[in-house]
Amino acid sequence: MKAMSRILLLLITLVAAPFSASRAAQSQAPQADSPATVANSLTVVIHEIMFDPPDTLGSDDDYEWIELFNTTGATIDLSGWTLNGAPLTGVIEPYRYLICARQDLSDPDGDGAYFSAFYNLDHGYDLNTPVLDMGNAEWSLQGPELAVVLRDGLEQVVDSVSFDPVPGGDGDGSTLERVVALLPGTPENFAVSSPADRHGSPEGENSTSPVVIEVSLPPGPFYRGDVVTISESILNRSSEPQTISIWRVIQLPNSLRRAFNPPGLPTHLIVPPNFEFQAESEVTVPDQLPLGAYGYQAIIGQGEQSAGSDWEEFIVHSNDQVRSGSATGS
Among the three residues 177, 198, 219, which one is the final residue of a domain in this structure? Predict the structure, then answer.
C-alpha cells in the first residue's frame, strides 16, 4: 500500500519560529506534550537501565549498566558530566548510543565477570555501541524505588528518571527501556524489555514497541530545485491492530528542531496485524533554502506503541557547487 504526493518543502519558514510552513502543516503540529516540544532540552537521554541483573547472569556489581542516547546532530563532550554522581569521560557521537557499564574490561574485582564478558558475539550480541567502563561506580541502582540523574559539567540536570515502584526489570533479566527518546523520562515513557532472557537491548534500538518505523532518503547531497523522495515504512509486528499517531521533525543547520508533517504522509493510522504500511512523498528543495546539514526523523505516537526512526542526515549544497553523481533529479 503506497500513498504518493508531490509537495513543496517550505523549510525557509522553519528557520524562524514559530513554524508556519503551511496551514496544513500548522494544523498537524504537535501539542505541548509532543516530542518536538521537548527536543531542544533533551540533548542526551537515559535510554535503558539494567539495574538488577538476574542471579543467573551475575552480581549487580558486575552487570549493572545504563545506556545513553545522543538525540542531537552534534558530538557531545562528556567531560565533567556525571551519572548518579559517577564521573563520565569521552564523547557521545551524534544520534548514537553509549553504554555506561559499572564494570567492564578493567574488571576491578578480578572475578572475570563484567559487561563485555557476557554482552558479546558468543552470546548473540552484535554490539557496535561504545562501552564506557565506570570502574565499579557506586550508582545505588536499587529497587523497589529507582532514580537516575544525568548532569552536565555545570551540574545542570540534562535528564532524569525515577520510579516508585519500578514497573519491572527487577531481577528477572529484563531492563527498563525508554520508549520515545524525545519524550520526558516519566514512568509512562518506560517499559520492560522483552523477552526477559534477552537481558536488554544494548545494541541500540529498544524492544518494547510493537510498531516500528523506518525512513529513507536518496543519497545526497541535495541541491536547490531537486525533487527528493521521502520514503517511510511502518511495520506492525504484533498480532493486534495498532492505532498510531506520527510526528515528523526536521533539524536545521543551526541545530534547532521544528515539527514538520508533509501533506500526503499520514499523521494518524490504524495498522493491521503483521502488516507493513509504506508511504512516499516527493519534496522539492526550495531555491532559497539555507545551505548546510539537516536531519529528519519520524516518531510514532506515545505510550506502549511509541518508537522513533533512525535520524536521516542530508546536506543541501548551493547550485554553483559541482555535482558528483547526485542521486536526485530536478
Answer: 198
